Sequence to fold (111 residues):
Amino acid sequence: LKFILALFNSKLMTFYFRYLNPETDEVLAEVKKATVEKLRIHNTDKQKPYIDIVNQILEKKKGQLEADTKELENKLDVMVYRLYNLDYSDVLVVDTGFLLSKQDYEAFSYE
Fold:
């Protein structure tokens, strides 16, 4: 479940959900079952690193919802980009504020 949480809260899934559901930014926009079913969930046998980061984020947010977890969230985003085999130019479309260089992105490893 925490692996799915990592995917659903990633910038990639947010981007894709907005593509599938253009009314996302409308007042009282609905989350439709048909739209959620179109989300592509890539599975991996290496879920533990994702789950570990989700646990760290949840621990920091426990009792302090304003806790800064941006670094952990950014790391999860990169892990999700790599899981879905996005190349650097694709990442820049999804995440216009992406901070890693092309070399750092391509060298990124979470294992």
